[in-house]
Amino acid sequence: MAESNRPGQILNSLKSWLFIAAFFSFCINILVLVSPLYSYQVFDRVLSSSHLDTLLYLTFAACFAFMVMSLIDSLRTCLLTRVGTRFEREIAPELVKVAVDSATTTTPLGTQPLRELTQIRNFVGGPLIAPLFDAPWTPFFTIVLWLVHPWLGMMTLFFAVVLLGLALANHRMQRVPSMAATAHLASAYRLAESAVRHAETVQAMGLFPNIMARWRASAEGALQVQEQAADRGAVINGISKFVRLVAQILVLGLGAYLVLTGQMSSGGMIAGSMILARALMPVEQSISAWRQFISAKQAFQTIKAAFEAAPQIKSRTKLPAPSGRIELERVVFQPHPNFPPIIKGASLVINPGEMLGVIGPSASGKTTICKLMIGILKPTAGSVRFDGADLAQWPHEDLGPYVGYLPQLVELFTGTVAENIARMGAPDPHKVVEAAKLAGVHDLILRLPAGYDTPVGEGGVQLSGGQRQRVGLARAVFGHPRILLLDEPNANLDAEGETVLINSLEKLKQNGITIIVVAHRPVILTPADRLMVMSEGQIAMVGPRDEVMAKLTGATATPAPAPAPASMQPPIPGPMSGPSSGPMGAPGVASGPGSILTPGVASGPGSMLTPGVASGPGSILTPGVASGPGAMLTPGVASGPGSILTPGVASGPGAMLTPGVASGPGSILTPGAASGSGAIMTPTGALRPAANSFGAAGKPIPNTIFHAQGGLGNGFS
To answer: 3-state DSSP call for residue 33?
Structure first.
């Protein structure tokens, strides 16, 4: 589980490695004195004594010391590289978990913390950190120069203080631009990731220039502050290099003066110049690496802030598998304190093995309340319980195997179809095929290029929206979950896919799985036990499916009126062209001035046009209207002036248009409306086997067009 101080804990665990790196730095800086000592001995002893043996021994000893120093330097570099990789290895999984958990909150982190982690690893394992280990040894070399001669020590101290001041000035000038550049780059990265993720929309609608303009604005801001920081850094670096070179010249000149005055030997002059260069070089290099150091420090603070913002979950006793009972107790969800709540005091009990359909207008809170039911979102107030236990007691890793979830937008992970169905675990062929058959997608998968081993996701086979949705359903039912949440599972399915889905839901119900389905189209809710209607964040209605449907559509349980005897029906020339047992026209049909019944209207056996149909002036019933056997147009249908019923309306067997449909002036029913078998078009919309929406209750609306794939506006969605 994520802990707020987890980065600090991992860093503390690496302190022993850092101490070893510091010890290696001590050895390296001691061995650095070999070169000055060698020069000192050569100038003061070898040249004066002309002993070649001494020169040979000194040379071998210096070479051996340099070999050891190089070996230790390599070990230090390898050690620091492993410090960086171990830090990433320890924290990366938890950081990914934190980023994933934050994705369902109002402040998602995205992948920015992972990029920051890479920056830390590159800095710690790179060459720029070595000067930071060597810079603390500057006082040591200053003391050594003081021992050579106090004037050399004082001069070294003076220039070290000057370089230190330059380093502090560099820090002050680099800190703010570096922070601004990081913020601008993060914004540019997020925009670029969004453009790549929605590449199809960007290409289809030609959005690239607009996206690029926004990206350039963010990237340009980062580039400007980076240039500003680089310019300032270049000035400081130039000054520091100038100071170091001047210091070397002055120390060499001072040494020469001391030699001429007999206060120091020539060997001491050369050694002093070399020690001074070593004393000031790490400070100068630290100034050059300071911007990267600040960036790494900011990256660490970003990661630390991400862990501090993550919800802290303590270890809890593992609970038994849930039975599928879900309880909502006065649940309120308010994503931001400055915005009104999305869910307002919802209370509900879902029994094990029950199928609940969730419907309602767009933005009514359907998806939100369902995400609250399975713990994707955390309620602001109230509680959600599984078998009486608050969801806060269930870690996602423990609850996940018992929950199946199919989101509105189904995305498959990079891997094979089998791996995706197996929830990215090691696929068990038997369980994978079982889940695919239960979801009705087995035959579809077999038709893929490599069957269950077909690669999908990035770089794999591109599946259609319907195929992804059906594979996603197989993933949701894998492992026999106790609770199954399907958010618009038929959004991308054709009629065949819907039939398969309905059959799958029936099988899942028989297995005792608690099923929650959010739907826009009513056909998918046929197996539902209850319907819940959401409206403005509240549960407006909940009850048995048939009762809720009847209330929504205004339909009654009373049977449709029987047709009048044929002897009482006045003959209507032309349109009544069906068999002798067939169509009838009741009084008042097409009775308005200029009303027309064209050939083929109500031509199916037993079809009926009841009084008041197309009674408005200029109303027209064109060929193919109510042409199915037993199709019926009841009173008030297309009764508005100028109303038109075009071919294919109510053409399915037993299709019915009830009173008030298209009764507004100029209303039009286009081909295919209520064309399914037994479909009913009420005053509020179309209900048929392939209908797309529920109609909204209300009065007939003038100039309304009823299309084959929809009903009135303001419907539940």
So the answer is: coil
